[in-house]
Design a protein that fits this description.
Layout (H helix, E strand, L loop, with lengths): L1 H19 L2 E3 L3 E4 L4 E7 L7 E6 L7 E5 L12 E6 L4 E6 L8 E8 L8 E10 L2 E3 L3 E5 L4 E7 L9 E4 L2 E7 L5 E3 L3 E5 L4 E6 L8 E7 L2 E10 L16 E4 L7 E4 L14 H45 L27
Parallel strand pairs: 2-9, 11-19
Antiparallel strand pairs: 1-3, 3-7, 4-5, 4-8, 6-7, 8-9, 10-12, 12-17, 13-14, 13-18, 15-16, 16-17, 18-19, 20-21
């Protein structure tokens, strides 16, 4: 009885571990021949210290290892496959360069778990290496009167071929690169970098430029749609005292205008003083009132202090000469601060 339960527990533990500990990545990818591709492989926090690997093959158990996080030495620019692990972000990134059609196939992002009961945690994706042309955006929009650049990407085998930019349905309109990879006219310029892309630049878009075009090289071609929108115009009419309001035109496409009523000006409003002038005047009046109140009080206070001081000086002079001759030793003297009181000697 214990043996079946033990086996069942181990099976459940294995499946639960596989459910909780997952490696994820992007879906299937397509890349032009001669180009490069970067694949992010995300993992759970508990795998931060584990070995990560990138291998090629339909069967994970038999896939060929191309890069490992524990590989000796540091990656160089000459390496076709580079693996970089970032435990902080919990992702390792694989970069493959100079892709060829033979590189098409199944690949695996893997974490080396090891152990008898635990298989490696890994996820697969298919990379398809193509020969031909492509564009980043199949539909490009530009504003009338501005310039616009379209980038056409090509595979390695088309590097030495001439490049063309043609209007769909009119092959006589094709602008073809010369031996230097350049060509231009009054409206267009085509420039090839001889590595992986050629750029087509409209110098000044007009409404008739709207339509389908082709990036072409050899037998390969890819369609691009150019949409030219009308330039946004804003017309502002400053209102006079009795003139019309402001008219704002948002776009010639919708032909709608917003009319704002003119600002009403009250009678005599043009002669009104600003608020700060009234505040300054009020402060000035208040200062003058305070000065008129404090100045008389200050003068009176100073006069009383001088009068008191003179009285005290007179009293001291009188006491300096005793009025009772030699019998002053038996005399009591009382000094009163109030000058209105009389001084008596005993």
């Amino acid at each position: 009885m214990m043996a079946p339960l033990l086996i069942l527990s181990l099976v459940l533990f294995t499946h639960l571990t596989g459910y909780l500990c997952k490696v994820t990545t992007v879906g299937d990818l397509a890349v032009l021949e001669g180009g490069s591709v970067e694949i992010p492989c995300h993992y759970e926090p508990q795998y931060a210290s584990y070995v990560k690997y990138w291998c090629q093959g339909r069967d994970r158990g038999l896939c060929t290892s191309l890069a490992r996080s524990d590989a000796p030495g540091r990656p160089t620019a000459e390496d076709k496959v580079v693996l970089f692990d970032d435990p902080v972000q919990q992702v390792f990134t694989v970069t493959m360069t100079n892709m060829q059609e033979a590189d098409s196939g199944w690949y695996w992002c893997g974490v080396e778990v090891g152990g008898f009961w635990s298989a490696d945690d890994a996820v697969s994706l298919y990379i398809n290496v193509l020969h031909g042309l492509s564009v980043v955006n199949r539909k490009v929009r530009g504003e009338e009167g501005t310039s616009l650049t379209v980038q056409c990407l090509y595979s390695q085998r088309l590097r030495q071929n001439e490049k063309k930019w043609c209007r769909s349905g009119d092959w006589s309109s094709c602008l073809v690169t010369n031996s230097d990879g350049l060509n231009e006219d009054q409206a267009l310029e085509i420039r090839d970098d001889h590595t992986k892309a050629f750029n087509v630049t409209f110098r000044r878009l007009v409404s008739t430029d709207t339509g389908w075009y082709w990036c072409a090289s050899g037998q390969q071609q890819v369609a691009v749609y150019i949409q030219v929108t009308q330039q946004v115009a804003v017309h502002i009419t400053l209102p006079a005292t009795t003139g019309p309001g402001v008219i704002v035109t948002s776009s010639p496409e919708d032909n709608q205008s917003v009319h704002l009523p003119p600002r009403q000006i009250a009678n005599g409003a043009e002669n009104q003083r600003p608020l700060w002038e009234y505040s300054l005047m009020a402060c000035g009046v208040l200062f003058i009132v305070q000065l008129l109140i404090l100045l008389p009080w200050k003068i009176m206070d100073r006069y009383m202090k001088l009068k008191k001081r003179r009285t005290e000086e007179e009293l001291e002079d009188r006491l300096s000469d005793p009025p009772f001759g030699d019998d002053w030793q038996n005399t009591s003297i009382i000094i009163l601060k109030d000058p209105s009181q009389k001084m008596l000697g005993f």
